[in-house]
From TrEMBL:
MF-aspect GO terms: ATP binding; phosphorelay sensor kinase activity
Protein name: histidine kinase
Class of enzymatic activity (EC top level): transferase
High-level lineage: Bacteria, Pseudomonadati, Pseudomonadota, Alphaproteobacteria, Acetobacterales
Membrane topology, from the record: Multi-pass membrane protein
Organism: Neoroseomonas lacus
Domain Histidine kinase residues, every copy: 278-481
Places the protein is found: Cell membrane
Keywords per UniProt: ATP-binding, Cell membrane, Kinase, Membrane, Nucleotide-binding, Phosphoprotein, Transferase, Transmembrane, Transmembrane helix
Spans through the membrane: 20-39, 182-201
Catalyzed reaction equations: ATP + protein L-histidine = ADP + protein N-phospho-L-histidine
Amino acid sequence: MNRDASPFRPGRWPLALRVPVLVSLLMIAAAAVLSHGVLQRLSRDQERHLGELSAAYLDGLATALQPAAIRRDVWETFDALDRAQGRYTALHPGVAMLVLPDGSILASSEPRRFVLGTALPEGLATRSAEAAGRGAPVMDEATARATLGRDLAEGGMGLGRIVAEVDIAPLLAERAAVRRTLLLANGALTLLFAILGFVLVRRLLQPLEILRAQVAAGGETGRVKPLPAAAIARAGPEFAALFGAWNRTAAAIGEREAMAARLAEEERYAQLGKLASGMAHEVNNPLGGLLTAVDTIATHGDDQQVREASVAFLRRGLDDIRNVVRASLVTYKGRPGDGPLHREDLDDLRVLVRHEVERRGLHLQWENALSAESPADRTLTRQIVLNLLLNACAASPDGATVRVVAITGPDGGVVIDVSDEGPGLPAPALALLADPEASPPEGGGLGLWIAVRLAHRLGGRISLCAAAQGTRIRLEVPGVGRVAGPREALAHVA
């Protein structure tokens, strides 16, 4: 079966169908973007409200539990936890407990599940520590639970930590309901507009159908016929002008057919003559020199220097003739990574990370003091900096500052510092900086691994610099650095 004639190919569909389908696809795309924005805003609002309720809940518990925590009074702690369970029904609190600094449970609202004196489960301990550190609940949609944590202290001495779990199933159900509503509403509107679009486009294209039938008839008979006056009178002003132009064209085509046939024959001979004369001219140009070289070899062939020079001349001349006969065009196409680095090439990265910066509420400080042009590799240097910048954004907490400082190195290369306010590099990342040829890390971290390998291929290096807060990574690329291996593969991976 001919694939081009398949009815399932959009190019074979009539215009009355393609236009509504295209409009439907655009509506689906717009609806998807808007729905994503609505769901994201709903999620942020839910998390903010949950955080506010959780803060009020933990404030009340902290006030009630602090005296009991100082005295390590189990019954008073249990009484405070039990009373708090019925006062915050809007939060849907589950279990709540007070954990001592040594990790043991002093009291719990569910003593059978969390036995007094035992250690807090590792997973719950990790989530509560994270919640206490960030001052916001840690949500787990898989279990429909959110973990709360608040550290208690008196006079600079830690008394323990309040750990609680709340039920977020109503929040998730609300998100699912909003998602279903959006899907149904967008689907119904898309279907309605697609049907209306099909009807309207089909009606608008009726004059074109008349013109198409006339063109098809002319293709079968070989003659172009004018449209009747009744068809022109029924058409709108735009199509009436089109039909009038068609009739004038039909009248002119008959007069030009004979002339076109004669001109085509003459043009064919003229083009053939131009091609032959051009080929003869291009081939004849080096022939005189080639014959001279042959005569020189015949006369002075015993002289090695003359013979070698003449043979080289012959080879070049024959190459020219071969290129003309083959009519080949050799075009050099630069590969990714070729070309110097300009200042604006680095500034482009601000646009590439703008979405991530705005999504996380980060502050990007950009100081580009590079010279107008650096001999450092353009594409690979940009890829390295982009990977480092994305890693810095991912490592920084919401609202933190990410800073990029770029200067020209002493040898004309570039020196670029990327700083964040994150918790610092993990051990596998530090190992990558020490060994550029190390294997990629397990469980992620490919961005830094690729950046280190690309810098190594360019003859540069990535190092960790001292920072008062967070992490500062420095990229140094020499101006004369060259890629030591196949860089296309690395460039595509990055």
